From TrEMBL, chains A, B:
GO MF term set: DNA-binding transcription factor activity; transcription cis-regulatory region binding
Species annotation: Roseibium marinum
Pfam hit, one: Peripla_BP_3
SUPFAM superfamilies from the UniProt entry: lambda repressor-like DNA-binding domains (SSF47413), Periplasmic binding protein-like I (SSF53822)
Alphabetically ordered keywords of this record: DNA-binding, Transcription, Transcription regulation
Domain HTH lacI-type as annotated: residue spans: 1-53
Protein name from the UniProt record: LacI family gluconate utilization system Gnt-I transcriptional repressor
Keyword Secreted annotated: no
Length: 326, 326
DNA sequence: GTAATTTATGTAAGCGCTTTCATTTGGGTT
DNA sequence: AACCCAAATGAAAGCGCTTACATAAATTAC
């Protein structure tokens, strides 16, 4: 920058202004400075800029997993949307480990970002402290519940589980089961399982079988199906915590000669692309993935542009996509 | 930090040392300082630290897409591995747009990261300039080719395409086709298509049909299948640029009553989890996804620990996974 | 033409750390 | 006890910018 200032024959301050707030500098100087800095290939040092200025153009976003297509999709969307406004995403991933989340949140906060976005509502005490003592807007996304730390944008997983149960009950299903991936770690899937259990029990007086799969991949869907059938042979409908598990179960059903939905009804969750393409096409529950990404970006941008904008706590709801497996 | 220094009754320098290089400070002072900073909840300001020190603990990684499970997997792996060494990933995503890549690279470079990792070998002139003028190690991953900018770790997509063609030719296939997603933008898929075309033509004197799909999702696999069959009805084998497309085609084949591999042979690419679970199970080509992530991390860490470590240019090769669709 | 504004530029004080260099302290040696 | 050397600590100089604040230049008002 010093170089640019010298060549352009102006002071450091003027260069900074020409680059940062072009309207504050006279047109002729501005063009000269821009020309010189381009010619010299000057690239401002963000770090210095951020130290001197108040904030970084960084938005910290923390998700449990990058390979989960929901979060990947939300992140991709947010990246693009924020980038257009000059913000840069700092992405963290903790693999459903709240201690790791704690460390990541602390690390992110130490860059004093413009905003912090975390996934879910379950955090350690320290995470909560770091989050609430950071000066920026904080949004907890994907889960809806009472009293978010600052803003909350998501939907109720419990309600999603209940929706599935109600749907099964309405179809006159007597014995149902729920298959969830890593129910011990993924509290969102656990909330769906619990909502399902409660509502199905309430509606039919039957306590549904809950089975935990070790991951969210297809193979596990197949083996979970076998386990369900082993433990509760008369099961006529299974709700899965993810479409991939459901599809895996469909493949397995195909192999063991079970017809769907005749012998067994299957309900997915996620409405991934694959759900529209299987034979038969998968009936599933769609979380508001795109709406979440958009709402988060919109809200954060609003807060950043008008700091007195109040926090929000949005429930975006889920939707049952009726296709052919139930 | 000033606060901590005052309370502990030492100078700023000592606090900094106690936290940064504990072995340089006497045990009793060290424990006192650590205790005080914990009690005060002191969180160092990374930005100031980086400005004063030489480098940030940031590693910039730029991929075309976050929703592509390869990149997502590599990123997840790299995040975990680097995190263990105290580095933090800065993830960028450009959607196969080299101009966007240019902007992202520039933005990342301005944080002067410890290393920069980009995907592929196709970059704009400016990207190349920024990359080579940045003081840190640069690795181009996923593609192998001559003379990387600095280090290169990947495999040859062209060779992967040739492998598919050779395999088909050996099976005695007369009329083959290749279906690739967004061949106009994804130069890796294009390289595979081109390798396939060249080798199949060379081996059988038959110019295979090349069809472009609009995205890498299942639905497109189905419609691409219809297009292939429309344009070249006698096609007996199709290679796809991705497993999802291949699976989509399998679903469609099922719908139109085509038996696989009897009527039509299908070869995927990626060896995603789903490939092991379809009926029949998908024969596919597996790129060295995990090996790439590991090799990148290992190499970068080496370079960072011993700056005189030479660059590398690794070809990790691909593997044909023989299953039931060919 | 001068005074009062407004606008454009320059000066210099940090931002919160790290690190060099100088100084002090605490053991060993003789 | 005097001396030397290594280890521990402190003082202070930046790191490369931004931004009050001060100053100069250009307008406008009278």
């Amino acid at each position: 920058m010093e170089e640019v200032a010298k060549v352009a024959g102006v002071s450091l301050a003027t260069v900074s202004r020409a680059l940062r707030t072009p309207e504050a500098v006279s047109p002729k100087l501005r063009t000269r400075i821009e020309e010189v800095s381009r010619r010299l290939g000057y690239a401002p040092n963000r770090i210095a800029g951020s130290l001197a200025g108040a904030r970084t153009p960084l938005i910290g976003v923390i998700v449990p997993s990058l390979t989960n297509s929901f979060f990947a999709g939300t992140l991709e969307q947010m990246t693009t949307l924020f980038e257009a406004k000059g913000y840069q995403l700092m992405i963290g991933q903790h693999g459903y480990d709240t201690d790791r989340e704690e460390r990541i949140v602390a690390a992110f906060a130490s860059w004093n970002p413009s905003a912090l976005v975390v996934t879910g509502r379950a955090h350690t005490r320290n995470t909560l402290n770091t989050l609430s003592s950071s000066a920026c807007p904080v949004v907890e996304m994907w889960d809806h519940g009472e009293r978010p730390l600052d803003s909350g944008i998501g939907f109720s997983n419990r309600a999603a589980g209940k929706l599935a149960a109600r749907f099964f009950a309405e179809q006159g299903i007597a014995k149902a089961a729920f298959v969830g991936a890593i129910l011990d770690k993924d509290d969102r899937a656990r909330a769906r399982a619990e909502g399902f259990r409660q509502e199905f029990l309430h509606l039919t007086r039957f306590e549904p079988l809950i089975v935990t799969a070790n991951n969210r991949e297809l193979g596990e869907g197949g083996s979970a199906l076998k386990r369900v059938l082993g433990q509760q042979p008369e099961t006529s409908a299974i709700a899965f915590s993810g479409d991939m598990l459901a599809v895996g179960a469909m493949f397995e059903a195909d192999r063991i000669g079970l017809s769907i939905p005749g012998d067994l009804k299957i309900l997915g969750y996620g409405d991934l692309d694959i759900a529209r393409n299987t034979n038969p096409r998968l009936t599933t529950i769609r979380p508001p993935h795109n709406a979440i990404g958009e709402a988060v970006v919109r809200h954060v941008l609003e807060r950043l542009e008008a700091p007195d904008t109040p926090s929000v706590n949005l429930d975006l709801g889920v939707k049952l996509i009726l296709r052919e497996t139930v």
